[in-house]
């Protein structure tokens, strides 16, 4: 598939895709005889996983580290698992913190709702 279709499927701009290829996050992208990129279904799945990691707050440097380990093959299986586990733990901590903030806001809103007659 071409870059336009790939961009649509992954919700990444062509500019971002080119950047990811430049820094090595997307690698081994084939090109046709005109030099245009040709993406595969596997590339789509990888890009979606990159998006998932970004959406969960993983810094690009860590995503690159994961990508580099992935490229090295099965011998990095445990390192990749540990990297993802560490990120998951940080994400869980952040979610717990956000839930505490949400509860505090809900309590304050409830206070205002209960005390409307005072205004």
List the defining traits of the structure above.
single chain; 119 residues; mainly alpha; Multidrug-efflux Transporter Regulator, Chain: A, Domain 2; 2 domains; two-stranded antiparallel ribbon; elongated
Question: How is this structure best described in words?
Answer:
The protein has 5 helices and 2 strands, in the order ααββααα. It is mainly α. It has 2 domains: 1-55, Multidrug-efflux Transporter Regulator, Chain: A, Domain 2; 59-119, no CATH class. The chain has a two-stranded antiparallel ribbon with strand order 1-2. Strand 1 and strand 2 form a beta hairpin.
Write the layout of secondary structure elements.
Elements: H1 3-10, H2 14-23, E1 30-31, E2 37-38, H3 41-55, H4 60-72, H5 77-114
The best one-word shape is elongated
Q: What radius of gyration results from the CA coordinates? A: 21 Å
Low-confidence stretches: none
Distance between the first and last residues' Cα = 62 Å
State the total count of DSSP E strands.
2
Order of helices and strands: HHEEHHH
Summarize the structure.
With 119 residues, this protein is mainly α.
């Amino acid at each position: 598939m071409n870059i336009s279709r790939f961009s649509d499927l992954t919700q990444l701009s062509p500019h971002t895709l080119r950047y990811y290829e430049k820094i090595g996050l997307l690698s081994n992208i084939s090109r046709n005889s005109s030099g245009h990129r040709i993406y595969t279904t596997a590339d789509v799945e990888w890009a979606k996983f990159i998006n998932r990691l970004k959406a969960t707050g993983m810094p690009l440097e860590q995503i690159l580290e994961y990508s580099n380990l992935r490229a090295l093959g099965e011998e990095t299986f445990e390192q990749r698992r540990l990297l993802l586990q560490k990120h998951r733990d940080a994400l869980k901590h952040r979610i717990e913190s956000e839930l505490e903030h949400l509860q505090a806001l809900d309590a304050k809103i409830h206070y205002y709702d209960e005390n409307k007659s005072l205004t």
